[in-house]
Design brief:
The complex is a heterodimer. By secondary structure, chain A is of the alpha/beta class. Chain A has two domains: 276 residues, 3-Layer(aba) Sandwich (Rossmann fold), CATH 3.40.50.620; 94 residues, no CATH class. Chain A contains 15 helices and ten strands. Chain B is an alpha+beta fold. Chain B has two helices and seven strands. The longest helix of chain B has 11 residues. Chain B is globular and about 40 Å long. Chain B has one domain: Ubiquitin-like (UB roll). Classes of the chains: A alpha/beta, B alpha+beta. The interface between A and B is large, with 47 and 26 residues. Chain A: Its EC number is 2.7.7.-. Chain A: Keywords: Cytoplasm, RNA-binding, Transferase, tRNA processing, tRNA-binding.
């Protein structure tokens, strides 16, 4: 027996809205869905007339629906926005290369310019190469940290006023839950903000903050929007998977719990005596950081030095690793001196210092160092990094080497879902 | 009782668990023969899920099913309408119905 649309429009309802429990027909649902996002945008003053806005586009359901809705609203309510798409190519074969095709489809469908930035161009490494170094554990940290910064770089290149991301209500609720579970007060405080970023940085806005995942998927389905859905080939992020599964189970019993968790996160106040890390500029790359050197730079330094675990875990651990590395380099220097400086400079122009090459010299340290190609000029870089770390010893960070990022430590909304789901409840 | 022909669609990444096939036409046998213990005359979504698990689901059933229902986060549509408006598991299948399963759990 068909249920009539709750608005009294005379049509049959197509879905039950999780947020309100209303049964609506397709047309009335589209209207409600779009209008709510319009209210979120106007109430939160997300955009100003004439702004250029980059939509962070992954080709997935959220960013596809976001791009579609922003285009629709921009025309309907005459926001006067100049919309464009910004995509990051992490270099994951069989995952991102396919999804980028979807983004190109979005570009054509929505007539928006598209900019694609790759990890390879920005950092000299693809995720495929990073995973070959670090293995499948922790690789989400690299991906998440690099993506966050890559979006900032892309936005700067495009000269936009802000970046709109596709984080939906379920994502935000999940992040609140995660931050409670981890006791991460700094992130708990800012993860519900509809606009993040401060002076000197390009703000990020979340127009879908109050939009349920179910409605996004139903909207895309009824509008026949083309989006890409698969799991990241490297995904497993077990902890987030558990949080997500818990949330979905709760939502099934009581759909308003998503809004309620967001509300709790928004209204929770932090005790004054809790010290929060302050935001500053990374001394190396000049992008936002909560530390002297930002996490992206530390991770990259680790990769380029053959210490891929650098930056995973505590900063004191990173410092120790660098010290050991430096000690090894000193020994190496002597060996190199002895070898009379012949074939050292051979490959010094190469970006990566022969990470995969094993040490050839039998006289050199235990054999687990990276080859003699680790040239001298790099040593000054290591030393400067070490200095930077020594400096930091005094200011005891509250957190680990965390960037001032909102919610993207590791994969959050764009991947890593299914890995943890395998465990179930 | 004659066989029941229906369409089963998978989307949003759910198709990855079903040989990547998005649209299928399936023929269900008489329910009292297939599941004698359920003592029903017609197929409901509840029995359909059992049949799908045993006949179509290729991998990681826990990503699709939970208990006797679908895993929360998998949307079910009956003839393009939210199953929540049709009694969910208790909906009785009619000839040439289209049942759609869309995953919201897959990222992009």
């Amino acid at each position: 027996m068909p249920v009539p649309c709750g608005t009294g429009c005379g049509k049959n309802a197509a879905l039950k809205r999780p947020k309100t429990g209303d049964a609506l027909c397709k047309e009335c649902f589209f209207w409600a869905f779009e209008t709510e996002i319009h209210f979120t945008i106007t109430k939160g003053e997300l955009f100003k007339r004439g702004d250029s806005v980059a939509v962070a586009a992954s080709g997935g359901k959220d960013s596809t629906v976001l791009a579609h809705t922003l285009k629709t609203l921009n025309e309907r309510y005459d926001y006067g926005l100049n919309l464009m798409l910004l995509s990051i190519d992490e270099g994951i074969t069989g995952y991102r290369d396919d999804s980028l095709e979807t983004v190109k489809q979005n570009r054509d469908d929505y007539e928006m310019p598209l900019k694609i930035l790759s990890y390879k161009d920005l950092y000299g490494w693809t995720m495929d190469e990073i995973v070959a170094q670090i293995g499948r554990k922790n690789n989400c940290t690299f991906c998440g940290v690099f993506r966050r910064q890559a979006l900032d770089r892309g936005a700067a290149l495009l000269g936009v006023k802000c970046i709109a991301t596709g984080h939906n209500a379920d994502d935000i609720a999940e992040t609140v839950l995660m931050n409670v579970l981890r006791g991460d007060i700094a992130r708990l405080k800012r993860c519900t903000a509809i606009t993040t970023g401060s002076e000197g940085t390009i703000p990020r806005v979340k127009p879908l903050k109050y939009t349920y995942e179910k409605e996004i998927v139903m909207y895309a389905h009824y509008k026949k929007l083309v989006y890409f859905s698969t799991e990241c080939v490297f995904a497993p992020n077990a902890y987030r998977g558990h949080a997500r599964a818990l949330l979905k189970d709760l939502e099934k019993i009581r759909p308003t719990c998503i809004m309620d968790i967001i509300y709790s996160g928004e209204t929770m106040s932090i005790k004054e005596e809790v010290t929060l890390p302050s935001q500053r500029i990374c001394t190396r790359c000049k992008f936002v950081s909560s530390q002297e050197v930002c996490k992206a730079c530390v991770l990259l330094e680790g990769l380029n030095k053959g210490l891929p675990k650098l930056g995973i875990g505590k900063s004191s651990k990173a410092k120790k690793m660098l010290e050991e590395y430096n000690a090894r380099q000193n020994t190496l220097e002597q060996v190199i001196d002895d070898l009379n400086d012949t074939n050292i400079k051979k490959k010094s122009g190469k970006k990566r210092n022969g990470l995969t090459d094993k040490c050839n010299s039998k006289t050199c340290c235990s054999g687990n160092c990276n080859s003699t190609q680790n040239n001298m000029e790099d040593n000054s870089k290591i030393n400067s990094l070490l200095d930077e770390y020594s400096l930091k010893e005094t200011d005891k960070p509250v957190q680990q080497l965390n960037d001032v990022s909102d919610d993207e430590e590791g994969c959050s909304s764009s991947c890593g879902r299914l890995g943890g789901l395998g465990v179930g409840f | 009782m004659p066989a029941l022909k229906i369409n089963v669609h998978f989307g949003g990444g759910a198709e990855l668990l079903f040989d990547k096939i998005k649209k299928r036409e399936v023929e269900l046998p008489a329910v009292d023969k297939y599941l004698p213990e359920c003592e029903k005359k017609g197929w409901t979504i509840r029995e359909l899920l059992v049949w799908i698990k045993e006949n179509l689901l290729r991998e990681r059933p826990e990503l699709f099913l939970q208990g006797e229902s679908v895993r929360p986060g998998i949307l079910v549509l009956i003839n393009d309408t939210d199953w929540e408006l049709y009694g969910e598991l208790d909906y009785e299948l009619q000839p040439s119905d289209t049942i759609t399963f869309i995953s919201t759990l897959h990222g992009g």
